[in-house]
Amino acid sequence: MPHPLEELRDSALRDIAETQDEQALENLRVRYLGRSGSISAWGEQMKTLGKEERPVVGKLLHEARNAVTAALAQTSERLRAAKEAGALAGLDVSLPGTAYEAGALHPLTQMLDRAIQIFRRMGFALAEGPDLETEWHCFDALNTAPDHPARNEQDTFYLADGRLLRTHTSTVQIRTMETAAPPLRVIAPGAAYRRDEVDATHSAQFHQIEGLYVDEDVSVADLKGTLEFFLRELFGEDTAVRFRPHYFPFTEPSFEIDVKSKALKGGEQWIEVCGCGMVHPAVFEEVNRARSDLAFDPEKWTGFAFGLGMDRLALILFDIPDLRLFAQNDLRFLRQFA
Fold first, then answer.
1. What is the CB neighbour count within 10 angstroms for residue 66?
2. 309 pairs with which residues across the strands?
3. What DSSP letter does each residue of 93-128 carry, written as one string?
């Protein structure tokens, strides 16, 4: 006659094979293999068996437990597959999927990333500063005269407490010199703000990337080499670059830079792209007063600074006719840069 364990095993396998519900299957697992289950109970009875009977029952118990465990796993997989098949039964795979559009970086972000990558290759580190600034950081420290037009409320956004929205990211250069000693080489990308009438070439908010390099024996040759390399990397190797004398209160001598490239619209037309110059000794002296030391001794250290308008560079590089397109979020425009 079959052993009771074999009969229990066969009964469990029949019940499991006939199960069509996941909850019922779980109930069967508990019924047979749970702590108080029928098969588990035989394990508790092993200590009451004689020495001769114990190995036989132990083998049958092991086989029964393995067979029921395997049957439970197979049935669980069968029920899961049936459930998934039922869920997909009403799905028409021939229908087109839901269309979606991949995002892309804004053209100004692309322009900024491209510029940063070029300067990073030349050893410039990134520096950041607040958009809301003091008049000292924005004007006084940069040797700007008290009656300079840029200080006028018609040109600069002032707050009631005397602070202002920075008119250039040169403020980051000053903050860097306040906290770091030379030599240093940084670029400061970010937004700047001026009271300009919004039109095709002007905006109240625009984006700059300014640079500062301070070391011993820095010369105009270093300035020219750095910016010529940058502009040719940006616009192409055939780009012609020229420096025109100019005036800025924070640099002396000062220059404006024009470029001409066949890769740009207009071909042989010169286009202004940058202002730059050698850091004025008065800037170093003002920073030293703020630091209460001579870290930037103008007798020992020299440096150059430059400012590039990211919006203007993007207009030139991507041949965009109107600055306002950058802020209108028109997908017809933005898709061109995806």
1. 11
2. 208
3. TTSPPPP-------HHHHHHHHHHHHHHHTTPEE--
d(CA 275, CA 277): 7
What pLDDT is attached to residue 266?
66
What residues have CB less than 8 Å from 189, skipping those under 6 apart? Answer: 112, 115, 116, 126, 169, 207, 208, 209, 310
Q: Each residue of 174-232: pLDDT tens digit?
A: 999 999 999 999 999 999 999 888 888 888 999 999 999 999 999 999 999 999 999 99
Any idea which residue has 């001794």 for tokens? 297
Please give the Cα distance from 224 to 264 (Å, whole number). 21
Tell me, what amino acid is at 135? E
Q: Are strands 302-309 and 251-260 parallel, antiparallel or unpaired?
A: unpaired
Q: Among 184, 180, 190, 208, which Cα is nearest to 123's? A: 184
Dihedral sign for Cα 11, 14, 15, 16, please: positive
What span, in angstroms and rounded, lies between the C-alpha atoms of 320 and 330? 14
What is residue 294's three-state secondary structure?
A: coil
Express each pLDDT in 216-237 by its tens digit.
Answer: 999 999 999 999 999 999 988 8
The pLDDT assigned to 243 comes to 96
Residue 89 has pLDDT above 90, yes or no: no
Distance (Å, whole) CA 226 – CA 290? 29
Which pair of tokens denotes residue 31? 């019924």
With residue 192 as reference, give the H or E element that holds it.
strand 184-193
